[in-house]
Structure formats: C-alpha cells, structure tokens
Amino acid sequence: MKSSRSCLNWLSWSMAVAAVLAACGTGPDAELAGEPVRAADTPVDRSELAPEAATAADRTASDAEDRDHRAPGTADILARTPPMGFNDWNAFGCDVSEQLIKETADLFISSGLKDAGYQFVNIDDCWALRERGPDGRLVPDPQKFPSGIAGTAAYVHGLGLKLGIYADAGTATCAGYPGSLGHEQIDAQTFAEWQVDYLKYDNCNNNSDGTRADFINRYSAMGNALRATGRPIVYSICEWGQVEPWEWASEIGQLWRTTGDIQDNWASLSSIIGQNAPLFWAAKPGAWNDPDMLEIGNGGMTITEYETHFAMWSMMAAPLLIGTDLRKASADTLRILSNTELIAVDQDRLGVQAQVLYNLAGKMVLARPLADGDRAVALYNSTAVPATIGIRAVQAGLPVADAYRLKNLWTGELHEAASMLSATVPPHATVVYRVAPLQRAGKLSPATTFGADLVNPVAGAVGPAVVAGQQASLTATFANLGAGSLRSLALSVQVPPGWTVAAQGATSARTLASGGSFGAGWTVGVSPDATSGTYDLTVTATYLWGRNATRATATSTVTVQVLTPPPAGLVSLTSIPQVSVTNGWGPVEINTSNGEQPAGDGVPITIGGQVYAQGLGAHAPSEIVFYLGGRCSALTVDVGIDDEKTANGSASFRIYADSQLVADSGTRTVTDPALTLTANLSGATWLHLVTDPGPTTNSDHTDWAEPILTCAGR
Ligand code: GLA
What we know:
This protein is α+β, with helices and mostly antiparallel strands. 18% of the residues lie in helices and 33% in strands. The protein contains 13 helices and 38 strands. The strands form 8 sheets. Strands 7-6-5-4-3-2-1-8 form an 8-stranded parallel beta sheet. Strands 9-10-11-16-13-14 form a 6-stranded antiparallel beta sheet, with helices on one face. Strands 26, 28, 31, 33, 36 and 38 form a 6-stranded antiparallel beta sheet that branches. The longest helix is centred in the N-terminal third of the chain and has 18 residues, at 212-229. The chain starts with a helix and ends with a strand. Mean pLDDT is 90; it is low at 1-45 and 51-74. The site of alpha-D-galactopyranose (GLA) has 10 residues, from loops.
C-alpha cells in the first residue's frame, strides 16, 4: 500500500477518484480528535448526487483520518484545523488591555462568533513591562492587565474560549519589550503556568546572521520549551516568510507567517494572496501557511475586498484571526466573519489548502477537496474590471458527471452547470462555489455568465470611462452553462436619468443551447449634464429554463467613470475633479498641507515662508491624475516642501502631459524656497502630478501651490 500521504495528494487532484481510492485502501475508523470538526450549516442533500460522488465522499473522509502527522495511537494533533479567533494588533497596535481582551471574549459569545468556530482571544505585543522581574520572568503590565495574564486567561477559559500571547525570538519585541531569546524555557514555563493556549513568536531584534540554520535554532528553542511544559500550546511562527518557513516550520510549530505584515489596503491584500496561494502544497492538518491576521472591518477596503479577504483565507486554509474592534463591528463585518459556509471550507477536516489551477493576468482559479467529496472552487479577480473566469469541473478534480451543482457561498444560490464552473466576477471580488456532481441534470436553474463592458473607453483611463455629453458603445455577452437549452432570452440596458440608449442590433434570441452564448451591443449617450463620478450601467437578461419554462433574470453591471473637461479660462486645479490619486500618507488635502493622517489635518500651505491661499497638499510618493480632454494649454504652479516640516523632507515634483514629462523640479528640500514650474499641456488628455521621495519617505510634505491651468473651454 502506498503511504496515505502520497495517496491523498494523488487523490486530491485525480479525475479517477474511485479507482485511486481502491488502490489506496481506507484508513482505520479512528475518531477525529483535537479541534471540533465543523460542517456547513446547510447540509448538502446527497440524494441527488451521483453515486460515485457519494462513495468518493465517504472514502475520502475516512482516508483523511489516516493521514500522516499523527503518531500512531495518538488522536491529538494541535491545530488540526486552522486556528480561529482574534488578535488585537491590526486594530489596536500597542493599545492592548485586559479590558479589551475580556470585552472581545464576551463579544465572541454574544455575537455568535464562538458558535461560528472562533476560539482564541490573542494578545499581541506590548502586554509586558519593559523589564523582566527579579526572578527573570516576564511581567504583565499591571496597569494594562490588573489580573495578570493568568487572571485574564481564567476569565477567557470561563467562557469556553482560549487565550493567546505574544513573544519574540530576539532580544526585544518589535515594540521594544523584553524578547525571549535565551529565555525560552522560563518564558514557556511562565506561559504554561498562566494557562496560555497559543503563542505568536515574532522575529524582531533577532541578532541573526540571516541563515536558515539560525532561524531554525531560534524557533526550535521556543518550540522545544513549549513542548517540555506538557501543555498543548499552539505555536505560531512569525518570521514573515524570511527563510522559507514553509520548508521547515511544520516540524516545529502549527503555523508560520508567509509574508510581511498585512496592511488594510487592496495592494497589500492582493500581494499577500499572490505570495501565499502558491504555497498550498506545504499545508496539512496541524501545519498551516499563515498569510497574517484579518483586516476585515478596519475601513481601508471595500466590502467586496473584505469578502475576497475572507473567501481567499478560507480557500487557503489560513488561520482566521479577527483583527478589528468587535465592539464597533458593522453588520457587514459580522456577516463576512460569520459566513459559516466559508468557515466550513476553511475548517474542512481534510485540511487541504486550495491548489492554484490557473493564475494569469490578475485572475486566479483555486480548488480544494472537502471531506464530504465536494470541491470548493474559487474564482478570484484582482483586476479593476469585471472578468469572466472559469474552469472545467474535471480540471477542478471533480468526477465526470451529467452536471454539477454549484452553491455560491456568498449568496447561497444553487445552480447547475453542465461542465464549466464559471462566473462573471466583479473587480476585486471572489466567487466561491461548493461543487458536487449531480446524478440527474435539469432540476436546478442553469449557471450563466454575463459580462458587459465598454467597447471604446477613453484611452488612458484606469477602468471604463466616458466623457460627459459623448457617446460610448456597450456590449454584453450572456452564456448558458446549464445542461439544457434556454428560451426567450432578452437583454436590456438601464442607464442613469438623462442618458440615452439605443440597441445596435438584435437583443433577443428564441433559444440558447447548452454551452452557447449570445452577445448584444448598444450605443449609450452620456448626459451632457452628468457630473464627474461613477455611474452604473445595468444590463438585464430575462429567459426561461427547464420543462416548466421557469422565468429567470440575471444582471451585469458596468461601473463607468464620467469625465468632465475643465471649463474655459484660468482654472485652479483645486476646483476640478481628481480622477485618481495615490498618496504616501493620508489623503491629498485641498488648500492645506498634508498632515499625514486623516482628511483635514493639514495647515495653510506655506513654502519658504510664503503662504498660499490654495493648492494641493500631497505626501511623496504621490500621483494625482486630472482629465483635460485636450482643452488646456498650460499649467503654472509653485512647488516645495511645506514649512510645517523643519527637517528631513525632500522630494522631486514632476508634471506629465499624458506620458510626456513636461516639467521637473529636481530635488527640493525643507530649506528651499518655492520653485515655479510652467508646463506645456497642449493637446494632452491627461495631466499627472507626481512627487517622488528623496532618500527617505520621511516628512516629504509635497505642496502644489496656486496650480493654475489655462484652458480653452468645452
Ligand atoms: C511584527 C508582527 C506583527 C505584530 C507586530 C507587533 O510586525 O509581524 O504581526 O505582531 O510585530 O509589534
């Protein structure tokens, strides 16, 4: 018999599931122990499923019980499924306290998060005093933790939850509290005495020579010390992916960070997904890739992006550690964190992280086998425009079948697909289907894809863009992925008030066969009065499916950006819309300098003692983009580092007419007076104001003062 592990790997991605199972044999009927096993809250009715799928489900589950990673005769493995809980760092930084931990634990109970599977309440950095005690032990800060860690743990345990703590494999933690390097035994012993259940072990001030051997030594020292206490303490290795922990850390702890710290923005989230997803092969029960704690609810991303965060963490079998202030969590935050269908995927007892099956141009398809024989398939779109993404069911590891049942784990909708698992995925969204083979096709509404886009958007715009008063062409393509034909398909477009729409050809079809698609086009006239901003164009498809001619509708939305050229005359850039902005710190301020944090925290723009009534307060590195539509001939502007900074600040200012550099300040420092730049913009569609940091990004408060355009009018 092959080893159970190689059988399972082979099995996971085989199309001939039943045959492999026969070759592998099944494992003993051992009880699964350790973390409770969670099932989806809506149990799948298996009576409709193909018989081979049901058999595969049973056999796969029992094979999973025979996996490696568990000493013979022992039922326990720590973190058999990825840890779920809370950690204070992302939302509170150093502002941690017993009160916060207790209130969060209470909220686990009252908000149903405990019932959803969340268990650990974890304390991050800054809980200790700056010095060890006379006995050499770490001392909890009595102001922050009046009952100590032991008292806090007792409270959390009293609620049926677990407590986690933080330490560092260096001389000091990242925030400068005592490190555990050389103190591993006494610290592990102390944590065990306090009844701690989880340790996150960080990597600051590590005195390391950077070799893998050194990392393994430092992390093993604490791992061994924890094990020697005899208390089961989940060990979270936090070395930020520096020396490929996915290759060694499973021997030492239960999870390992694969990347640097997550930030509450899309660039960080999508980059971490790109780094963590390909490491799927390293994860197994008791050994997990950790792409860092959740940012859901912290305000820096859209609801769609937070949904992607949760969906992808669940597909990647990642720890689900809530990183927001639960006392203030919105309904959307709680809805996302409590999606029991996705939690069931994350916590599936097979413990197989989703394999990346396709990854190109910002679009990814991932699939993972689940213990009941279903597959979870994720379609991830990290691009700025909607994308139709899909894969054949057999390529996702499903057996050949007449059709497949798709359950959308965000909407709960059930659909049937003949062979393609596909969806039109909005920008930055992730569709997750739980897929099972069906014995008989024709009972569920057919899966469809429905994409719409502008044919001739304004060149150089980030997404679909149109100019007020002008026309644009819209196309839509509707595809039938179901097993039967559709009838009476009709497409129509809804536009904002004051806009016009006219079909360019046929917009309906009598029938649409399985696997067929139908496209239609429209000319859309943008209202001349439309103000700059985003508008939705919604295409609706209506059709009949099945023997009973059941009526169904689908919609596809294109969010277009309306651009308005500047008016005639001398126009201040502070009065026209910014089409897109990136900024080093906080928002770009209008008529004040950049105070680095929230909107409105700047001071009057002042360069070299000269105060300006108007201007844009940016922070390098920054880029502000304006739409000119070829109407403007010149820009004059005074640039410099704001006087609110007296040291460090230095940056350069550049002006681009489309992609052509038309003015460049060279490096300006805090001591330089304002420099007047004049730029020729003739014929340019776009204006880009760019600032680049000097040697550091420290204090680079880059002012664009009195920025005046000369324009010819609409
Ligand atoms: C590092 C870790 C973070 C957090 C901080 C605390 O940056 O990666 O997750 O624990 O330290 O100082």
